[in-house]
Amino acid sequence: MTYDLDNLKIVGTRPIRPDGVDKVTGRANFGADFKMPGQLIGKVLRSPHAHARIISIDTSKAKALTGVKAVIVGEDMIDIAHELSQTGETAIDVHDLSLNVLARGKVLYDGHALAAVAATTAKIADEALALIDVQYEVLPHVIDVDEAMKPDAPVLHDDMFTKGLDETPTTPSNIASRMEMGLGDVEEGFKHADIIIERSYKTKAVHQGYIEPHAVVANFAEDGTAFVWCSSQGHFTVRDLCAKLLGMDSSAIRVIPAEIGGGFGGKTTVYIEPLAIAMSKLAGRPVKMTMTRAEVFRATGPTPATSMDVKIGVTNDGKIVAADCEFRFHAGAFAGSPVGAACMAGLTPYALENARVVGYDVVSNTCKSGAYRAPGAPNGAFAVESAMDELAQMLKMDPIEFRHINAAEEGTKAIYGPTFKQIGCKDVLVATREHPHYKSNLGPNQGRGIASGFWFNVGGQSNAAVNVHEDGTVTVVEGSPDIGGTRAAMAMMAAEVLGIEYERVQVVVADTASIAHNDGTGGSRVTFATGIAVTNAAEDVVLQLRTRAAADMGIDVEDVVWQDGSAQATKGDAKSMSLADIAAKAARTGGIIVGRSSINARGAGPSFATHICDVEVDPETGYIEILRYTTVQDVGKAIHPSYVEGQMQGGAVQGIGWALNEEYFYNEDGLLENPGFLDYRMPVASDLPMIDTVLVEVANPNHPFGVRGVGEAPLVPPLAAVVNAIYDATGVRMTELPVTPIKMLAALDAYKEAAE
Amino acid sequence: MRYEVADSVAGAASLLAGEAGQSYVLAGGTDLLVQLRAGMISPDLVVDIKGLDETRTISESGGAYTIGAAVAGAELGEHDTLGTVWPGVTEGAELIGSTQIQGRASMGGNLCNASPAADAVPALIAADATCTIIGPDGTREAAVADIPTGPGSNSLGKGEFVVSINLPSRPANSSDAYLRMIPRTEMDIAIVGAAVNLTLDDDGTCTAAKIVLGAVAPTAIDVPAAADALIGTKLDDDALAAAAAAASAAANPISDKRGTVEYRIKVAGVLTKRAAKIAYDRARKGSAS
Ligand SMILES: Cc1cc2nc3c(=O)[nH]c(=O)nc-3n(C[C@H](O)[C@H](O)[C@H](O)COP(=O)(O)OP(=O)(O)OC[C@H]3O[C@@H](n4cnc5c(N)ncnc54)[C@H](O)[C@@H]3O)c2cc1C
């Protein structure tokens, strides 16, 4: 069913989120808040080297220490063949995952786990770690992606033979795979260009920076089942990955979803969870593990460092005739960077006849990269949108006008295959151009940049139940961890369908034993896909309510409509019955009313965003201040506008941090020098102005309320928007991120020198 | 680890002196507790000095100030007159950390922790501040400049600690300023810091100056050549440029994850010039009122 989006009572309003009070009062239970009687504390021994062969691990002294109840090393894990496990937005190779959880043979990065202990106290666990004797043969290492691709680079995996080449090579290398996609004929296209630009760009690895470190409590029982409490973006993913890694049945593991203190893609896999289960099994007691912030930085999944080439040709009237890109992404120690998504997304805001993107997935001695909001797209957009900005300068054309001339629209065939239906790419550009920010004046040393971005959004598997209680209240049972206010959105959609007040609907995110599989919270899919499941389940309830009412009224169900929260007869003079009336009689009319839906949602509408950024650059210190920032995005229909705005603001802020100061800083030995928030510089509140938001609502025809995913697109444009603003302020084009004051000042000085 | 709350200044000194192992003073704890949790230090004894009048009060007599070593940054900022007489010293202490850190962090802790980038220290040295130290052999005075001896080390003897920091009375038409460079707006460590303390005559000609740089050497450094460039001038552009050049010449920094040698040298000059201007304007304004 679809709804008249101009006549909604609850969808589009801004009620308080159900989890809000608990979160602001500190009552909410996050990963580390849970305790069990008799629990042990588990800790992990991590590699102090970027790359080394493990000659031996002697755990005998640690095992002998009083209070130590379990010690495990890589050899204790089962061997698993390479196999991709689908986790929703991304696929995870369980063989590699097992080696990432506990190294065998070699350690591949600073922080790589190679043993774990569980003891009666944290202090004893620390002492036990210090007693584990590991002998290493330190090997040469490589961090930088371009270095890692060189033929003489130290090779991480002897069994890595580049996939995707015409002929599979016979010598191993760090290039896991090559991919290519295209439209038309690029060489032919460039022949028609009046201006061709060719540039190279680099970005550093950056972390999601979620405030809550990974934490887990696991209890393995004598009957072979395990109870797991942890926060994640997908408790079904945690269950299935742990089952695979430990050789258990999925049904034997029950994962309870704790409240989550941020994930941004970084909590879509497992690190310490299987270790806690394995050690609980050994010890016969619950095991609790909590990562330190340094462990989070050293050994979880930041988004990768990248190196990118872009070549774009345009005619003098601003039409793009060809685009050719090569994206090289480091994946960390194991294959699987988001380079594919970057290839598919980078050029997609534009309608192109001739385009080619080549991607390389490359391993190097850093922690395995993970998903981070719109994985890969911000990097690609940084390169493409920087080049687009330069082209607009060369064409002497307004950068929005230049983008608008080339913008994707309904009917445009995207490089990754589909032909777009209703999209808001052009609407967003127009709204950006009309915004007062774009017309405001700038002072000395100030500049303005704009950039656009695209994200697919995904659908996937979701299911939900809507339980109607005897007193006329309702509980929605779903299985998508709530990161961005989705419980509120689910309650709103259910209340809208049922015609009852928002306050009468409770939403529960159920554990893995209490509801069927749901794909994780990622890909901006929950309000879309789980939203469809909840809407369907509520509609299922409505049908049952009408059926029961019709029986009560003694008429056909076709003659009963559901309106304003009650069953109304369209024939005869039967009195209308409210949801509460029908619910009160349910036990006598066929039993409790439960609506259900299980779907694999397709047709997630893509999202387009354009951002405007104003900066001021201090010419003497290189300090860059963000003066004003506006995000404009096609959000489909905003179910709860405040939470949509929050997503847009948060994405912009993360992108600004990525552009200006955030980076994984490795020293000569390949060790991470800044595993903490002091020297890993995310923006602090006082760094930024209020981020302005403009919601452009182009409904997605594939969702009953027109929802598109909104959580990822806002992190796509900021990198280039900031750098384009810096160019406007200074005349200096920064092609390597982050643009720290140190880099900025050096570039300003070099620019001045060149001009003299 | 033993934790003791001192009930008197002398009692604290004897607790510290009596411990055979590692003993530490606890003021705000914003360095100490971080180091403890990171496993950088493992004290046998921690003596909390926050409960003592001598370490927690600010008093003024004849224009000179005595500031308890454990007075928190926020308390300094809220003082009636200190911020007007010594705005540079006050802003150096007040920009440490964030609102939360300000409720705890002290100048004594900042000084004794002896970070090359400590924000409260350059302005104190520029002010010719002294400190009162108590130890097993009684009380002594020392220049603030003589306390830090290198990154993380200070000149205090076994059992000694700083009770108060003392600022001298100052002539009319005097003021000071402190500026630091960080990539963010708070919660960061200075890549470079510069403090300038000036006295002017009635026409605005500089008669005395002291310029101290932070984070460009193992300890904060006094740069007399930069001060000399200002004395006898009204801080015209040439004088400021000369002071900046002298500051850059004196800077002897390292390259690390927070900044390069080139950057620190250049920005040492820039901040010197800017802080000098601010101090000058403050001193002029003070004389006008
Ligand atoms: C989030 C955060 C942000 C920070 N930001 C900044 C910043 O912007 N700039 C900056 O300079 N610093 C910063 N710091 C470091 C710290 O806050 C300051 O150095 C602060 O001034 C220390 O004071 P405290 O009272 O907390 O010292 P404590 O931690 O109590 O003590 C520090 C050291 O000095 C010793 N000590 C303390 N008082 C005395 C005394 N009276 N006599 C002898 N020894 C003593 C202690 O034994 C300890 O070794 C920051 C710290 C944190 C955690």
SSE map:
The complex is a heterodimer of chains A (756) and B (289).
Chain A: H1 20-25, E1 40-46, E2 52-58, H2 60-64, E3 68-73, E4 84-86, E5 91-93, H3 94-101, E6 106-107, E7 113-119, H4 122-131, E8 133-138, H5 145-149, E9 175-183, H6 186-191, E10 195-203, E11 215-220, E12 226-230, H7 235-246, E13 253-257, H8 273-283, E14 287-290, H9 293-299, E15 306-314, E16 320-332, H10 339-345, E17 355-363, H11 377-395, H12 399-406, H13 425-434, H14 436-439, E18 446-455, E19 460-468, E20 474-478, H15 486-498, E21 505-509, H16 526-553, E22 560-563, E23 566-569, E24 577-578, H17 579-584, E25 593-601, E26 607-617, E27 624-634, H18 641-660, E28 691-696, H19 718-730, H20 741-755
Helix pairs in contact in A: 7-8, 10-11, 11-19, 12-13, 15-16, 18-19
Chain B: E1 2-5, H1 9-18, E2 23-26, H2 32-37, E3 45-48, H3 53-56, E4 58-61, E5 64-68, H4 73-78, H5 82-85, H6 87-94, H7 99-102, H8 107-113, H9 121-126, E6 130-135, E7 138-143, E8 148-150, E9 153-154, E10 161-167, E11 174-181, E12 192-200, E13 206-214, E14 221-222, H10 224-230, H11 237-250, H12 261-288
Parallel strand pairs in B: 1-3, 2-3
Antiparallel strand pairs in B: 4-5, 5-10, 6-7, 6-10, 8-9, 11-12, 12-13, 13-14
Helix pairs in contact in B: 10-11, 11-12
The structure holds flavin-adenine dinucleotide.
Residues 24-32, 34, 69, 96-97, 101, 104-106, 108-110, 112-113, 118-119, 156, 161-162, 187 of chain B line the site of flavin-adenine dinucleotide (FAD).
How would you describe this protein?
The complex is a heterodimer of chains A (756) and B (289). With 756 residues, chain A is of the alpha+beta class. Chain A folds into three domains: 20-27 and 459-601, 2-Layer Sandwich (Aldehyde Oxidoreductase, domain 4); 34-139 and 211-262 and 267-299, Alpha-Beta Complex (Aldehyde Oxidoreductase, domain 3); 306-457 and 605-755, Aldehyde Oxidoreductase, domain 4 (2-Layer Sandwich), CATH 3.30.365. Chain A is built from 20 helices and 28 strands. In chain A, the strands form seven sheets. In chain A, strands 3-7-1-14-11-12-13 form a seven-stranded mixed β-sheet, with helices on both faces. A five-stranded mixed β-sheet of chain A has the order 9-17-16-15-10. The longest helix of chain A is centred in the last third of the chain and has 28 residues, at 526-553. Chain A is globular and about 90 Å long. Chain B starts with a strand and ends with a helix. Helices cover 36% and strands 25% of the residues of chain B. In chain B, strand 8 (148-150) and strand 9 form a beta hairpin. With 289 residues, chain B is α+β, with helices and mostly antiparallel strands. The relative contact order of chain B is 0.12. The model of chain B has no long low-confidence stretch (mean pLDDT 96). Chain B contains twelve helices and 14 strands. The interface between A and B is medium-sized, with 23 and 20 residues. Bound molecules: flavin-adenine dinucleotide (FAD). Flavin-adenine dinucleotide binds next to strand 2, helix 2, helix 8 and strand 10 of chain B.
